[in-house]
Automatic annotation (TrEMBL):
GO terms for molecular function: catalytic activity. GO terms for biological process: carboxylic acid biosynthetic process. SUPFAM superfamilies: D-aminoacid aminotransferase-like PLP-dependent enzymes. It comes from the Bacteria. The lineage of its organism: Bacteria, Fusobacteriati, Fusobacteriota, Fusobacteriia, Fusobacteriales. Belongs to the class-IV pyridoxal-phosphate-dependent aminotransferase family. Gene3D superfamilies: 3.30.470.10, D-amino Acid Aminotransferase, subunit A, domain 2. This is Putative branched-chain-amino-acid transaminase. InterPro entries: Aminotrans_IV, Aminotransferase-like, BCAT-like_C, BCAT-like_N, Class-IV_PLP-Dep_Aminotrnsfr.
């Protein structure tokens, strides 16, 4: 991901130059990770900007703020208006990524909540494809760091501090020569990747971890599952273990940044069984979802209207 931010951001209730949106080094959110955030993609097609499932991202952000007890709320109308103003002010003519987040900038030396005020900020950056599968799929390592449980931190909130878990897991995977970490819970169930959800094709069935697992409820995976259902496939929600991954037909990885990619291997063992020569390669479900999703974001799918917010 290129760190080339767009010129204008939303900060303290107004649109300001990105460089001017700064906080104290003692800010509560910087010390204790007390933020929740969203990651949203926007596309520039035929002279128009369309944002993918903006309202669903807004709802998840407000739910996160609620789960974390931040006592911050902005209405959908206000949020959408701000996003529209930011898009206009930045005069966007390319695909981009948008990061809204709720945070507290007050300087504090204790994590306690009394007297804290939370607020919204949004910044944007250009973002083309994040992960390329030209050289093959993702090579996963089974993470030695477990995914934290919902009993410790709300797993359905994208809570800033909780990303220490993803940081440790991906750093470890990459230090060991892999692309990504596959996260397990304390019982050995497969949960998700470090910053993306998974879809397993197992014995010709589409299987994903149940909603009550410790995975984030990804908006992209939800869309991919709806696309599978649209194409007549049934989706099953179950517990997944490592043996299922190692004997699966396909393992797909999906999230806002990467859209959809396929996994090539787990711990050096190729994914896919039926046709030995096709192991570790792009499978039919991956190809279907990639082409369906491209249609959606180009406005050519029946579901485009439902999912794209046009600015
Ligand atoms: N899991 C985690 C831990 C993530 O950070 C993300 C990225 N937001 C996802 C899954 C995928 O979610 P989404 O499709 O909403 O981007």
């Amino acid at each position: 991901m290129k760190n080339e931010f767009m010129k204008y951001a939303y900060f303290k209730g107004e649109i300001v130059e990105f460089e001017k949106a700064t906080v104290s080094i003692a800010a509560h959110s910087l010390q204790y990770g007390t933020t929740c955030f969203g990651g949203i993609r926007g596309y520039y097609r035929d002279g128009k900007i369309s944002v993918f499932r903006l309202k669903d991202h807004y709802i998840r952000l407000m739910n996160a703020s609620k789960m974390l007890g931040f006592e911050f709320f902005v209405s959908w109308e206000e949020f959408k208006k701000t996003v529209g103003e930011l898009i206009k002010k930045n005069d966007i003519k390319e695909d981009f990524y948008m990061r809204p987040f709720v945070f507290c900038s007050q300087p504090r030396i204790s994590p306690k909540k009394a007297g804290l005020d939370f607020e919204l900020a949004i910044y944007l950056l250009p973002l083309a494809d994040y992960v390329s599968t030209e050289k093959g799929g993702i090579r996963f390592m089974s993470s030695t760091y477990r995914k934290y449980s919902d009993a410790a931190i709300p797993t359905k909130a994208k809570a800033g501090g909780s990303y220490i878990n993803s940081f440790l897991a991906t750093s470890d995977a990459q230090r060991n020569g892999y692309d990504e970490a596959l996260m397990f819970d304390n019982n050995g169930n497969v949960v998700e990747a470090s910053v993306a959800n998974i879809i397993l094709i197992y014995r010709d069935k589409v299987v994903v971890p149940d909603v009550g697992s410790d995975a984030l409820e990804g908006i992209t995976v939800r869309s991919m599952l709806e696309l599978l259902e649209y194409n007549g496939y049934e989706v099953h929600r179950e517990k997944l273990d490592r043996s299922m991954i190692l004997t699966a037909d396909e393992l797909l990885v999906t999230g806002t940044a990467m859209k959809i990619v396929y996994a090539e291997s787990l711990d050096g063992r190729p994914i896919g069984t039926e046709d030995y020569s096709a192991r570790g390669q792009a499978g039919k479900y991956y190809k279907l979802l990639k082409s369906e999703f491209e249609k959606v974001i180009s406005g050519e799918h029946e579901l485009s209207k439902k999912w794209l917010e046009i600015f």
